[in-house]
Amino acid sequence: MSIDRLKVHFALKQSLTAVLLKKPKKVVRAVDDVSLEVRRNEVLGLVGETGCGKSTIAKTILRMNAISGGTILYRGADVQRLSGQDLMRYYSAVQMVWQDPSSCLNPRMQVGEILSRPLIRFKKIGRREALERIRPAMRIVGLNDNEVSRYPHEFSGGGKQRIVIARALINEPSFLIADEPTSSLDVSIQAQILNLIKSLKNSLGLTMLYISHNLSTISFLSTRVAVMYFGRIVEILPNENMTRRNYHWYTRRLIDAIPKGTRIVNAAVSQESESRLNHQGCIYYFSCENAKQRCREERPELREMEREHLVACHYPIENGRRGPR
Question: pLDDT for 58-76, tens place per residue?
Answer without folding.
Answer: 999 999 999 999 999 999 9
